[in-house]
Write a structure and sequence with these properties.
It is built from 4 helices and 3 strands. It is an alpha+beta fold. The chain has a 3-stranded antiparallel β-sheet. Strand 2 and strand 3 form a beta hairpin. The longest helix has 22 residues, at 56-77. The protein is elongated and about 50 Å long.
């Protein structure tokens, strides 16, 4: 998941690898996540690249998502 991959701040390439996405997919999802303020973008001055970091809103979304996943698993076993 992109939000997981970007928690500590990663480049688009690293996010693609960690989230198992291709270039077309990442180009589609990054703008959407930025517009929803789930990730933020900054320029890494040490290397001329963009770094994407999960925002507090994105972390909150991840937490709720995991709760729903856990609930789903629990309900399937009952």
């Amino acid at each position: 998941m992109i939000l997981d991959a970007a928690v500590s701040g990663e480049t688009k390439t690293r996010i693609m690898l960690q989230a198992n996405l291709n270039h077309i997919q990442i180009k589609r999802y990054i703008p959407s996540l930025l517009s929803q303020q789930l990730i933020k973008q900054r320029t890494d001055l040490a290397a001329p690249s963009q770094v994407y970091t999960t925002t507090e809103k994105g972390r909150s979304f991840l937490e709720r998502y995991r709760e729903v996943q856990l609930l789903d698993v629990t309900l399937r076993h009952d």
